[in-house]
Fold these 4 entries.
Entry 1:
Amino acid sequence: MQDISLHLLDIIENSVRADARKIKIRVINDQAINKLRLIIEDDGRGMDEETLRMAQDPFYTSKEQREIKVGLGIPLFKQNAELSEGSFSIKSEPGFGTVITADFALDNIDRMPLGNLKDTLLGSIVGHPEVDFSVKLISRQKGREQSFHFDAAAIKEELGGIPLTYPDVIEYIDHSLLEGIQNTNMEDV
């Protein structure tokens, strides 16, 4: 993976495959403590302890269609967080979903860039209109905090029967995400 947003995309796709109907994403850029934190929480099937352990093994995958049985997404995400003086945790319970938290030291030379967060989020929201995405971006620096919140469920309710895949709606979501990313200074991370 070339950047953190691609790790995020991989985790989102895992959540969708686990039948998640709600995915909560938080990206926190905290300059005061030199930390970039991603938290991805879903209400999917969840995993038992054995599956949770195996999910962190690069030679395990739950994808049955693959000829080669490897699943590098979670192990690489964990490795990249830890290589940048960060940490990684995954918690899950069958029937209650999964929570992944990854921390990266902002000033570590081995930290990969955040990448194209807007396109990752837009593609996920529009590509999975059946999922209610909640996105919160928080930037803390020099004693001030800026935040942005996007709630797909609220937008769906406001739109009535107009789908998220309608071109004008896609344009609105794209603009909202771009503005939120710019206002929280996430494009520079």
Note: The CA atoms of residues 50 and 158 lie 42 Å apart.
Entry 2:
Amino acid sequence: MEVDLKFMLEARKKILREALSDPDEGVRLAAAGALERLESAMDLDQVFDALKTGDRGTKVKALHSLERVESERVFAPLMAALKSPDPDIRSVAVEVLGKKKDTKTLGAVVKHLKDPHPAVRVHAADALGHFSDQRLVPYLGALLKEEDSELVKSAARSLGAIGSAEADPYLKALLKDSRPAVRREAARALGKLNLGE
């Protein structure tokens, strides 16, 4: 069975490579995108090995590469990376999980709003904006009282991305913050909220 799958994927790669010289530019672009995703998926075992044995830079690249792969197999290593003692690894894992938007990982990303490292908290706040889940509004709203400007700005951006009118009072209060950059993010986010029924 595994040999048949490998043969099928190699045949798919071959035909996509041929499509790279199609006379239509749209077909060439679509083939290039499909080929990149296919090759990423086929190299998954190498990526998993890099996550186990590579140095920090290699692990970061490997985690970023999982963003392009459409496979359930990517979630286990991403979730494992959330437990890394290295905050850079946790940050990248949270970022990629946010872009994947898989609701099964939402709870794990929320937990990292309380990560001991400030950068991981900022990435977690940013990642939550990708989920478009209004249940996140109170979690992100609570972050708006933090002293870390980057964390506050990330939470405000995510509230805007979620777009729930429930974020309105949180963001209005943030417009009175002493930090201009924070007020700017609050104003932008308010402009993105749903207008209600």
Note: The radius of gyration is 20 Å.
Entry 3:
Amino acid sequence: MVDFKVVLSDPATGKAYNIDASGAGAGSFIGKRIGDEIDGAALGFDGYKIRITGASDRNGTPARKTLQIAGRRKVLMAGGVGFHPRVDGERRRKMVRGAEITQDFVQINAIVATQGSKTLAEYFAPAEPEAPAAE
């Protein structure tokens, strides 16, 4: 069984929402790459299209879009995701994951590409308690 924590950002409101995806919802991410879009109905958001923007595994190793593999590699980097040089021209060999989503990932970062009929705030609004019956 695969479980993911999905951080879904809504650019219209500037808010981010945490979603626990398991079962079929998590299965819709397997095999996709960073930059791919999935149907929001898999996570319960009808009419939404969700674009994968990044991910990380249980060790916190980030996924890099330019690395078109499914595993981890040590890559010589001069900047970008996974390495921020402190000195101009600095390069280092750093561990990063490939862009393909596998069951080894824990967190997936995503953004709303197409809005649905309901807003995300309506989906995540706390349930109102039922009023007691008047006698």
Note: Residues 2 and 27 are 7 Å apart (CA to CA).
Entry 4:
Amino acid sequence: MPDRTVQVRMTDQLRFKPGTISVKAGETVSFQVQNTGALEHEFVLEDQGMQDRHEHEMQGMNGTQSAGNNAIDVPPGQAKTLTFTFPSASGTYVYGCHVNGHYASGMRGTVTIT
């Protein structure tokens, strides 16, 4: 059972809204992710190192390939939910879309764990 729900929108301007989210250490959050555009997007929630590895894997590929349990593909006009429990220590996570060229164009956001 999540502690709370956060609404996240994906746009074809290659942005997430909101671009920053704050959570408490150990908090379980359900991210309700809505793709408001006509392009395929994904929502990958990981630390920066995993984001960098996934971006490298996706370079040169067409379409999407989710990074694992902390990732969802969201087709145009649809919504999906990802529930995640954050670590019990402060830090930073990143959410991003690694569809070819999206992450490099700035389609990412930051979760600050306090």
Note: The chain has a mean pLDDT of 92.
